[in-house]
User: Which sequence fits this backbone?
């Protein structure tokens, strides 16, 4: 979606410390040139295909459709991207821009860790230094992702200020960029931040919706009646929705995290019920959860990737102009939807994506069998194993962890072995 | 003509040594304690006092100020009360000027024009909004003209010459000249990193408003280096760190050391 000088209605813009002005201008120029350069676009599609496995399938869920008794349910399988989430689409694109700008290092913020992993993967492949900022609470919730980021060579910095979640990670990444802009690119993972990031991230993610257009025509001879996507920052939703904006007959539903209740601090609902208000923070104007003094507030979701205090200015604008209908699902409904998909279709969804499933499943039942819905399955759920096991009250999981921990410490493997091994490896690599 | 520029120029800082601009966060460590600290500084005779209204996400600030802002938010500061408190201090110390610094969102929530109007009514002379670029400042600049309050813009070392010209050309009151990259509070020596003399000379070509230099000033030598170059030396994080270590007494000692003219 094209902006008016970086604005979408009253949202967007570029509200950054002056020190970042030149870097922001450089990204603006480079992005404009790159998207009009056929060789860049060709390289982008090549990397999407060869590295991330695009196009991802559009999967017809026949069992679920029968179970729900309404619309035909289709899933856009972004979970099948390399790294297990749609985040890869954007990171590959921005990674190519980094090379084009000749920068040597990338900085990124991450919530659930999916964007952090994707960034670390691409940085490793492109030979870039990589620093990931992650809220200390998210580090604790998603340690396996932190482990892989570090194995990939990234420096992961737990952010211990403020609410210790995604928004603080974003602040800290901006601070890093303020002193490192000469050789570093801030690789924002969602369609937020100063211009041109919302437009640029949406551009790279729009491959999702473009594929759905082609696939729906090929698989059921028409465009979908309705699209569903979860909305954290908004990148997977915009990726699916944007190519359909002019198709007025296609309804779009964005799903926010209702968490554990409607009190401030218990959810991440910014756009429904006027729970959020217009504000300007973190580089852009949008809708934020804030108090009467303009202080940003704490948020909650069972899905770390939706636990964000603001939202893309493009989503805020599309919601305000009622092109996108906003809805929400609470932690309990999300787990039920996750469980239903596991049982009916043999697909393990991320808890983020399960928000979209929850609302779509509820509404699909009231639609006709000749109607089609497409739900963006933005990521796979393997990463959520600890949280889901706990939420499902799995009796075997805690004893398993205890046993594992016992063996981990008492293991008769030579404790120096792994250390020596990694040292040898790094010697080999540097040699 | 700007009250702030007149006030600064009358003291002829370029021929002696830079005036003091000390930074305090409203509400840190409590509202009462922050007002006491401001009063102490004004009693010492600091020429300009920069008061930061805390924000939850201060992206241009380094660790010292970030932590202090989060601590300050625990006492739930209100912009309306802040303006009233600063107005009272300003009336008690008419020989100093008080400037308000805030990130945009608390100002936006309060109302930009309303804030400018009420700040002017309380006798404040300038506002610093570090995340408001001049391109998005139409309403703010109009209100500043209407209520005779100075919008203080930042100039940074990496700024293209064209942009220095653009911003300096619209400057009133003073310009806040950042002396290095990064966020507030990182240590640096002023002149080793880049050519400060050339930087300030470039800015002077486009404006005759007083120049204030800040970011990383911690020692009397750094202030002395600015003599003849800048009108004002800004001390922020260093003062906060000292205050955190030894309270008001240590803070006073640092200000006295940096600005001998005050004693």
Assistant:
């Amino acid at each position: 979606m094209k902006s008016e000088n970086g604005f979408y209605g009253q949202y967007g813009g570029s509200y950054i410390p002056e020190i970042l002005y030149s870097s922001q201008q450089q990204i603006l120029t480079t992005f404009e040139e790159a998207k009009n350069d056929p060789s860049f676009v060709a390289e982008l599609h090549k990397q999407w295909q060869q590295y991330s496995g695009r196009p991802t399938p559009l999967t017809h869920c026949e069992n679920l459709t029968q179970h729900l008794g309404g619309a035909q349910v289709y899933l856009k399988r972004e979970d099948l991207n390399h790294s297990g989430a749609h985040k890869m689409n954007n990171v590959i694109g921005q990674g190519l821009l980094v090379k084009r700008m000749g920068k040597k290092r990338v900085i990124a913020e991450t919530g659930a860790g999916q964007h952090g992993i994707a960034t670390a993967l691409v940085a490793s492949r492109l030979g870039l230094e990589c620093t990931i900022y992650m809220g200390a609470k998210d580090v604790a919730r998603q340690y396996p992702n932190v482990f892989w980021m570090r194995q990939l060579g990234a420096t992961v910095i737990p952010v211990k200020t403020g609410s210790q979640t995604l928004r603080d990670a974003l602040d800290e990444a901006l601070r890093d960029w303020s002193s490192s802009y000469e050789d570093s690119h801030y690789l924002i993972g969602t369609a937020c931040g100063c211009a041109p990031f919302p437009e640029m991230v949406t551009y790279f993610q729009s491959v999702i919706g473009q594929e759905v257009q082609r696939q729906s025509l090929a698989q059921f001879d028409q465009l979908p009646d309705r699209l569903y996507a979860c909305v954290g920052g908004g990148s997977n939703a915009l990726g699916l929705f944007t190519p359909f904006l002019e198709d007025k007959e296609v309804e779009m539903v964005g799903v926010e995290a209702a968490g554990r209740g409607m009190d401030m601090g218990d959810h991440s609902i910014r756009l429904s019920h006027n729970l959020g208000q217009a504000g300007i923070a973190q580089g852009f104007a949008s809708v934020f959860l804030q108090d009467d003094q303009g202080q940003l507030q704490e948020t909650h979701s069972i899905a770390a990737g939706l636990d964000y205090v603001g939202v893309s200015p493009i989503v805020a604008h599309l919601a305000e102009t009622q092109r996108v209908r906003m809805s929400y699902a609470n932690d309990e409904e999300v787990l039920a939807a996750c469980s239903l998909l596991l049982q009916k279709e043999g697909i393990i969804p991320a808890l983020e994506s399960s928000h979209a499933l929850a609302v779509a499943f509820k509404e699909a039942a009231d639609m006709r069998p000749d109607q089609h819905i497409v739900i963006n399955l933005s990521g796979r759920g393997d990463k959520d194993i600890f949280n889901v096991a706990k939420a499902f009250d799995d009796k075997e999981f805690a004893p398993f962890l205890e046993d594992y921990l016992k063996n981990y410490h008492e293991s008769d493997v030579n404790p120096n072995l792994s250390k020596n091994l990694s040292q040898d490896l790094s010697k080999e690599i540097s040699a | 003509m700007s009250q702030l520029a007149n006030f600064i120029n009358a003291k002829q800082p370029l021929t002696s040594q830079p005036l003091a601009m000390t930074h305090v966060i409203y509400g840190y460590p409590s509202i009462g304690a922050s007002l006491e600290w401001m009063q102490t500084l004004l009693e010492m005779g600091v020429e300009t006092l920069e008061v930061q209204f805390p924000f939850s996400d201060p992206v241009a600030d380094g660790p010292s100020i970030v932590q202090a802002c989060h601590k300050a938010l625990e006492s739930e500061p209100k912009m309306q009360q802040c303006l009233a408190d600063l107005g009272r201090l300003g009336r008690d110390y008419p020989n100093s000027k008080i400037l308000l610094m805030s990130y945009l969102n608390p100002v936006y929530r309060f109302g930009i024009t309303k804030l400018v109007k009420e700040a002017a009514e309380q006798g404040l002379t300038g506002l610093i909004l570090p995340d408001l670029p001049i391109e998005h400042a139409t309403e703010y600049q109009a209100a500043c003209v209407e209520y005779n309050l100075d919008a203080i813009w930042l100039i940074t070392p990496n700024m293209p010459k064209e942009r220095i010209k653009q911003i300096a050309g619209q400057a009133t009151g003073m310009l806040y000249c950042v002396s290095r990259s990064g966020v507030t509070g990182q240590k640096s020596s002023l002149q080793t990193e880049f050519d400060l003399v050339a930087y300030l000379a470039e800015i002077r070509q486009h404006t005759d408003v007083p120049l204030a230099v800040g970011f990383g000033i911690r020692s009397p030598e750094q202030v002395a280096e600015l003599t003849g170059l800048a009108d004002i030396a800004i001390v922020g994080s260093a003062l906060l760190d000292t205050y955190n270590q030894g309270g008001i007494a240590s803070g006073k000692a640092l200000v006295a050391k940096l600005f001998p003219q005050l004693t």
Remarks:
- Chain A is about 45% helix and 15% strand.
- The CA atoms of residues 37 and 373 of chain A lie 35 Å apart.
